[in-house]
Task: inverse folding
């Protein structure tokens, strides 16, 4: 029986690391890394900073990665965590703008980040109130905690991947996410969002 | 619903970048890459290749070789030319068969004909033909087909002979059709699903890769390498007009066939540059290649390239057969065409 099955794929694409290594000699191969990862990186940056700056930040993520590609460890495989780490650093430069938008959502119920996008058809009743509370809690988090939490929630990264992205031990990621989540739960549990102090 | 689920929904309406926006972003990114400049190590080998010349001559030659073109711009043979000041089109260099097929699966939308309409395909074909012993030559024609999108109305097929080419080592036989000869005949709706090749029928095919691969297996032919037969069937469907879900499944099903190779840069029979992937038909000594646009990864056509001169009876590298898809459009009517010599009627 020579009929191939799903398991018999013999033509899987090269991993990111192989492409990055080859891009040392053939720089334009790095465009493949862009094609593979730009959709998720751009979405993540857009959710954090809004579409206005996301395009530029996303482009910068890949240019920074391109310039640093000689430092990429070939045994890493998936370049996603590395790219999310660079994105996190660049997002950090816009921290005040990020918090300002979250505070605006908290105050008005209107999210400056998503204004231009079509609302989801499955949007939950009462989601507005929840979102205002979440925004308040997010705005009140320390940057490192917000980064770890949102890499889980919006970046779909595992704790191990976040450790790679942020360059901190996995234990640190775990404790940051746990503490940030308890803030979220408190905010959703009915506490007045404005009472959350910015000390976490 | 817990806190994490609610947080995942926050700003969840932001979409992933895709389609034209992604292509445009890539274009900008590649322009920025080029502006970064080519690292010094990419230029160094030029000095190695001119070893043996005097140092001064080698240096002068190397300078001459590195001067043309703006710094950092790498051109590829056959890639579209660019005017100064405008960014060159993004030409991705896929690194595997799967990568090419993924890009093809994601490439643009096709036509969407309504009931009673016709799908019009224009293509160029080249294939070996033979008039007895030693009468082998390469037949070339431009084909236009009007196929009823739902197999309900008679369509038409037009072929216009192009200048025939010699089969390597043989003269063109005098009986070969003369360029400019046109044939137009009616195409009747097909009875029985097995022979249907219309849009409405293709819309009923499985949209999952495994199901589509099973459909490839129902194509006639085979006997030898089953995977080659599957590859060839998939290649025929790659150029057919069908809904996006089925077309995507065709490319994803091709991905499941082991043994395909990345063939790299290729020119189709219409002279367009592309990126090719192929599967070797060991029995005939040919590699059956599927060619894709290097920028959009739209399917351009196919070609058969000699890889085993003895089996193919032609030098390695010779192209012995090819198709190039020029256009696929939709129209309300097909031209009135007479029945062919062996056709009875469409009833």
Result:
């Amino acid at each position: 029986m020579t009929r191939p099955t799903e398991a018999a794929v013999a033509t899987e694409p090269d991993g990111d690391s192989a492409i990055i290594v080859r891009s040392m000699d053939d720089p334009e191969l790095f465009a493949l890394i862009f094609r593979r990862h730009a959709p998720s990186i751009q979405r993540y940056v857009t959710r954090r900073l809004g579409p206005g700056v996301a395009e530029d930040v996303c482009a910068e993520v890949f240019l920074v990665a391109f310039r640093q590609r000689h430092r990429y460890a070939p045994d890493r495989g998936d370049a996603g965590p590395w790219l999310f780490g660079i994105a996190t650093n660049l997002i950090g430069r816009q921290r005040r703008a990020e918090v300002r938008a979250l505070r605006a959502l908290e105050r008005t119920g209107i999210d400056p980040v998503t204004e231009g996008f079509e609302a989801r058809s499955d949007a939950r009743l009462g989601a507005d109130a929840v979102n205002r509370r979440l925004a308040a809690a997010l705005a009140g988090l320390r940057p490192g905690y917000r980064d770890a939490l949102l890499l889980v929630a919006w970046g779909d990264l595992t704790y191990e991947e976040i450790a790679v992205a942020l360059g901190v031990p996995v234990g640190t990621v775990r404790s940051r996410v746990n503490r940030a989540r308890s803030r979220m739960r408190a905010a959703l549990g009915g506490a007045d969002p404005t009472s959350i102090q910015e000390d976490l | 619903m817990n806190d994490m689920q609610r947080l995942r929904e926050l700003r969840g309406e932001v979409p992933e970048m895709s389609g034209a926006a992604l292509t445009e972003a890539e274009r900008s990114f590649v322009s920025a890459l080029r502006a970064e400049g080519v690292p010094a190590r990419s230029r160094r080998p030029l000095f190695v290749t001119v070893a043996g010349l005097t140092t001064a001559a080698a240096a002068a030659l190397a300078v001459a070789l590195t001067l043309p073109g703006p710094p950092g711009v790498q051109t590829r043979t056959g890639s579209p030319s660019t005017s100064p000041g405008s960014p060159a089109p993004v030409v991705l260099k896929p690194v595997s068969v799967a990568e090419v097929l993924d890009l093809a699966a994601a490439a643009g939308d096709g036509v969407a004909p309504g009931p009673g309409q016709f799908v019009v395909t224009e293509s160029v074909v080249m294939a070996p033909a033979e008039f007895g012993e030693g009468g082998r030559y390469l037949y070339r024609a431009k084909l236009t087909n009007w196929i009823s999108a739902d197999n309900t109305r008679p369509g038409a097929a037009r072929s216009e002979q192009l200048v025939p080419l010699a089969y390597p080592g043989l003269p063109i036989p005098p009986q070969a059709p003369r360029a400019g000869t046109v044939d137009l005949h009616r195409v009747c709706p097909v009875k029985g699903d097995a022979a249907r090749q219309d849009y409405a029928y293709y819309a009923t095919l499985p949209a999952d890769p495994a199901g589509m691969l099973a459909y490839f297996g129902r194509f006639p032919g085979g006997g030898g390498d089953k995977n080659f037969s599957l590859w060839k069937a998939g290649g025929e469907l790659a150029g057919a007009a069908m809904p996006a879900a089925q077309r995507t499944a065709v490319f994803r099903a091709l991905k499941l066939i082991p043994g395909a190779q990345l063939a790299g840069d290729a020119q189709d029979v219409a002279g367009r540059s592309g990126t090719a992937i192929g599967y070797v038909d060991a029995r005939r000594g040919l590699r059956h290649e599927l060619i894709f646009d290097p920028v959009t990864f739209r399917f351009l056509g196919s070609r058969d390239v000699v890889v085993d001169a003895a089996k193919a009876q032609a030098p390695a590298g010779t192209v012995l057969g090819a198709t190039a898809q020029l256009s696929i459009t939709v129209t309300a009517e097909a031209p009135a065409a007479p029945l062919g010599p062996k056709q009875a009627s469409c009833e």
